[in-house]
């Protein structure tokens, strides 16, 4: 149907948790989405257009969306925020099409975002640099 979550990654940007939800985007139909946290079997809606975000998270979340990625930041991330994070996409229709990915987040296991984003965004530049080293 053209809206499928392809990956969900988590990293630490300063003191904020950053969740990158990458997805296919091959339809003009608006995408409904939801970021949630499941902790001790209870689901907490953080942000999105599907469920109502819980009051305790509203002031701590910020969100950006581009063509095929939705990025959620959760500020002041602590061990109390550990758990299973889910990114869910829904495409309107009968029946609605749902696609999601989940990632387990533990504060002491998180990597810093700079390494991930630098590598993901600048792979070609980095490869060019490495290939040109023998020429120097």
TrEMBL record:
InterPro entries: Ig-like_dom, Ig-like_dom_sf, Ig-like_fold, Ig_V-set, Immunoglobulin_dom, THY1. The keyword Transferase does not apply. Keywords: Cell membrane, Disulfide bond, Glycoprotein, GPI-anchor, Immunoglobulin domain, Lipoprotein, Membrane, Pyrrolidone carboxylic acid, Signal. Residues 1-104 form the Ig-like domain. One of its GO terms (cellular component) is plasma membrane. It comes from the Eukaryota. GO terms for biological process: cell adhesion; cell surface receptor signaling pathway; positive regulation of cell adhesion; regulation of cell migration; regulation of immune system process. GO terms for molecular function: integrin binding. It is found in: Cell membrane. It is a lipid-anchor; GPI-anchor. The keyword Transmembrane helix does not apply. Its main location: membrane. May play a role in cell-cell or cell-ligand interactions during synaptogenesis and other events in the brain. This is Thy-1 membrane glycoprotein. The gene is THY1.
């Amino acid at each position: 149907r053209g809206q499928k979550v392809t990956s969900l990654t988590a990293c630490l940007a300063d003191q904020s948790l950053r969740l990158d939800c990458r997805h296919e985007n091959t339809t003009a139909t608006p995408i409904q989405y939801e970021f949630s946290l499941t902790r001790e079997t209870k689901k907490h809606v953080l942000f999105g257009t599907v469920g109502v975000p819980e009051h305790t998270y509203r002031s701590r979340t910020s969100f950006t969306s581009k063509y095929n990625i939705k990025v959620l930041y959760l500020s002041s991330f602590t061990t109390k925020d550990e758990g299973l994070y889910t990114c869910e996409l829904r495409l309107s229709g009968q029946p609605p099409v749902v696609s999601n990915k989940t990632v387990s987040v533990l504060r002491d296991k998180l990597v810093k975002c700079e390494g991930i984003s630098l590598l993901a965004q600048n792979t070609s530049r980095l490869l060019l640099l490495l290939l040109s080293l023998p020429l120097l």
